[in-house]
Design a protein that fits this description.
The protein has 98 residues and is α+β, with helices and mostly antiparallel strands. Strands 1-2-4-3 form a four-stranded mixed β-sheet, with helices on one face. Strand 1 and strand 2 form a beta hairpin. The longest helix is centred in the middle third of the chain and has 18 residues. The relative contact order is 0.30.
Amino acid sequence: MKVLKESIAGTLESSDLLVKVAPSDQGSLDIVIQSKVIKQFGKQIKRVVTDTLNKLAVTEGSIVIEDKGALDCVIRARVQAAVLRATGTGDLDWRRLS
């Protein structure tokens, strides 16, 4: 999927995260994660984000994550929502994402 426009999903409330997705001029996939628990959970957060992006076939764009203690299922849902808004995709193979 190609990121066509900027989009946001989530909040900055406790146990949530804010995901910002934007097109990239460089043709690469840039992921930035900001979290107070980056030392403890940074690798897992990145793993969930990259896995979700791979399942959505997103290969380029800018992804910024501002984590406030979100669980993996919340991370996955917020990334999916932001990407779907940014790509304008309505049809999705949900079996591939589960």
